Amino acid sequence: MLTFDDIYGNSHLKERLIRTVKSGNALNSYIFEGADGIGKKTTADIFAAALLCESGSGSPCGKCDACIKCASHNHPDIIYINKKKDKTTIGIDDVREQVMETVYVKPLLAERKIFIISDGDALTPGAQNGLLKILEEPPSYAVFITMVPKAAMLLDTVLSRSVRFTFLPLEQSEVYRYFSEHTEGSDEQLQFASRFSQGIIGRGLLLLEDESFSELYKKTVSLTELLLSKGSGIGDFERFLIENKEKLDFIIDFMMIFLRDCILSSLNMSEQILCRDKLYEIKNIAASVSKKALVGAADNVLRYQKRIAQNANTSAAALELLLSIREEMNDKGNRSQV
Q1: What is the three-state SS of 104-125?
Q2: Rounded to an integer, what distance in angstroms lies between the CA atom of residue 181 and that of residue 194?
């Protein structure tokens, strides 16, 4: 059974939640705001268990009947509202079925009934307005915990009736401590995952625990190295980007990390390089390509990221990116240039 002690970082947030539990005065609606993988869902489960725990200690005791049921996600007074597998949104019909039909039925075992909405960003305006009707005159025992990447994704009227908790990225040392205590891998792997995580534990875990994600990193770096060193492989790289368009954010991050490492190597700052497994290739690129060309390539990747965010044609944008980088290498790759 996880407790608040198992949450890394965001100590101010944990303290507020513990005070809320101890006071016995939980409000009806909470918004947990933060990036995916930052710990919102884990914290919501712990907060819900703490509110239902029979010990009254402010954190789940892990021993009472309520905690045992919460640990197995089997407590009848905790209702999880998620997107259905065949849908991309949570609509008003879902809210009627999963919330409105049960919210006014008193809790079966506890003093509270808790609704956890994991995909708050998927709530349609109609669904949010349905929730709003409940939040305007909620049953005293009802508690809603809604998770979103950004609170701005919710209607102002919903936000005004909720308490917002913002989850901030962790210090790199905290992420590394988590990986050291909960995962396996070499220190080099843990250090790289910690830096790549950008303060979001779930993001780094993908690199450590998901083999397909690790392969995505290796393939991205291999294609980027080929493009920078020889100006070749454009066709393969273009197909790779198109085939993995759902993972473009991660591919762009991997490209930027590799380009950053090449720039650091050219500045004789190799001790700060992240892609230690590609140290030989990085040094070769730094020795043959100017810093100006590498910075230009990085700028092109950032422009590509913006174009994709604006729903540009994936194929056209990918080809333009790769040709632009090759042009940087051909026109500015002379080592004499700064």
Answers
A1: CCCCCCCCCEEEEECCHHHECH
A2: 13
Helix 201-209 and helix 172-182, axial crossing angle in degrees, nearest 10: 40
- Average pLDDT of the chain is 92
Domain 4-166: which CATH number of 3.40.30.10, 1.20.1600.10, 3.40.50.300, 3.30.70.20: 3.40.50.300
Q: Which CATH number fits domain 210-332: 2.60.40, 1.20.272, 1.10.8, 1.10.3470?
A: 1.20.272
pLDDT tens column, 156-174? 999 999 999 999 999 999 9
Q: Whole-prediction pTM value?
A: 0.82
What is the DSSP pairing of strand 163-166 with strand 142-148? unpaired
Which residue is listed with tokens 């102002």? 156
